[in-house]
Write a structure and sequence with these properties.
By secondary structure, the chain is mainly alpha-helical. It is built from eleven helices and three strands, in the order H-H-E-E-H-H-H-E-H-H-H-H-H-H. The protein has helices at 5-38, 40-44, 83-92, 107-110, 115-125, 150-157, 171-181, 186-190, 232-241, 252-260, 267-277, and strands at residues 57-60, 63-66, 139-140. The protein has a three-stranded antiparallel beta sheet, with no helix packed on it. A hairpin with a 2-residue loop joins strand 1 and strand 2. Helix 1 (5-38) packs across helix 5 and helix 9 (232-241) packs across helix 11. It is globular. The N and C termini lie far apart (62 Å).
Length: 284
């Protein structure tokens, strides 16, 4: 190699390394926003606990779930997960050891997310402080405590689905649809479920009388009151501040969603959500 070759090679390697670092930083930055868009902090941070360290208690008609640690701790979190492990968990509901996740974890919605969004989210989670704390075991009623039944449950109630753009609709409508049906997983709480916990897809967003912690979750479709009386600006303002058009405030689980998720979204994304919710759409 000539005397000019080594400096040239070093410069190329330095430029490549710098580009990779910048790409990783950009990916993690996008992932930080996706964390808010997906509402991860609302479910994976218990009151008084460390951020994203899990342990949140969730009462449901099927028993009590405890959310897992998603910090990069290698023993109790996801520190040993590869990107492929992470994507498989969020799109197929399968853990790295091959076991099935309960649908209290909304992989049924996250399966609609783009693979790049999932990689960006993982890039950000790799950088959050690791916390070593294991979540308690779920306390579920029979037969829901039999994890072996989750395979057949998926066969009946779950089909991985990546959303395709609807060309007849605007870019904002398609973005809103992606958020509501994908990372925002609004359908998981605002849609009623059958006796086995599967979504009643023909009644998407029509409300859920047995929501998280026994809450009655209202419909968010333009044909049902009081949502039918809301305008686009009402939806955006409510998702930003929690205040409804009548001056009352959204509380309960939705209060946490606004605090940890929608209150931090861009106005363009909030307007996209509103455009989608106010426009007739197909079943899930």
């Amino acid at each position: 190699m000539t005397r000019f070759g080594l400096p040239l090679l070093a410069s190329i390697l330095l430029l490549s390394l710098t580009a990779n670092v910048q790409a990783d930083e950009s990916s993690a930055s996008r992932g930080e926003y996706l964390l808010k868009l997906s509402g991860c902090a609302s479910c994976h941070t218990r009151e008084g606990g460390q951020p994203l360290a899990g342990g949140l208690k969730m009462e449901t008609p099927f028993g009590t779930f405890y959310t897992p640690n998603i910090t990069p701790d290698p023993k109790t979190g996801i520190g040993n997960w590869s990107d492929d492990d992470f994507i498989r968990a969020l799109t197929e509901g399968v853990a790295p050891d091959g076991s099935h996740y309960y649908p209290a974890f909304p992989y049924t919605s996250y399966s609609r997310m783009s693979r790049q969004d999932l990689r960006d989210l993982k890039a950000y989670l790799n950088e959050v402080p690791a916390v070593q704390v294991a979540a308690p075991d779920h306390d579920l009623k029979f037969p829901f405590n039999l994890r072996v039944l989750l395979g057949p449950w998926k066969w009946v109630n779950f089909e991985p689905d990546r959303l395709q753009t609807v060309p007849q609709k605007s870019a904002a409508w398609n973005r809103g649809r992606y958020i509501v049906q994908g990372p925002g997983h609004c359908v998981e709480c605002h849609t009623p479920r059958n006796r086995l916990g599967g979504l009643e897809r023909e009644q998407a967003l029509m409300g859920n009388p047995q929501g998280p912690d026994g809450e009655v979750v209202p419909p968010i479709v333009p044909t049902k009151k009081p949502f039918s009386e809301w305008g686009r600006e009402d939806i955006v303002f409510a998702l930003q501040t929690g205040m409804k058009p009548d001056g009352d405030f959204l509380g309960g689980t939705m209060g946490h969603v606004i605090e940890n998720s929608t209150g931090a979204l861009t106005e363009s994304d909030l307007k996209a959500i509103a455009e989608y919710l106010l426009d007739p759409r197909e079943p899930l």
